Amino acid sequence: xxxxxxxxxxxxxxxxxxxxxxxxxxxxxxxxxxxxxxxxxxxxxxxxxxxxxxxxxxxxxxxxxxxxxxxxxxxxxxxxxxxxxxxxxxxxxxxxxxxxxxxxxxxxxxxxxxxxxxxxxxxxxxxxxxxxxxxxxxxxxxxxxxxxxxxxxxxxxxxxxxxxxxxxxxxxxxxxxxxxxxx
Length: 183
Known about the structure:
It comes from Rhagologus leucostigma. This protein is mostly beta strands.
């Protein structure tokens, strides 16, 4: 049976039993997004093939795949399968610190892909190992970190938590302002 392995966000490998040989025919492979079969792509392969990697695919997309053995000896029915590519899991590309005051700053990040369930913002003073965590909804791209010590450098790490369970992180340093005199 035709089946897929090594599925990523942009590719997968098709495997199939040896139905033909170099001498007895060739395969026609057709594949298209299930939601848009008009964008069908076709490839011809020699009868010696039993696997092929399809790449340049769209993430989080279900593809209809048909392998048609074109034999000059026997009739083989087309083999079909459906394969869904994974979500594209990109780490936050930039983490920005702004609106810095003595006891708070704003952390913002980009991009904000649909496949992120939530963000975890970890922060703690440098040097040191006391780390606090803020959970932020996956639709948001910023949060205010409060109750900080003045005139202190913090390490801030933003971790994207994907539906698949994977996590990707990026860190930045932030400095709080000096406290106002007389406090």
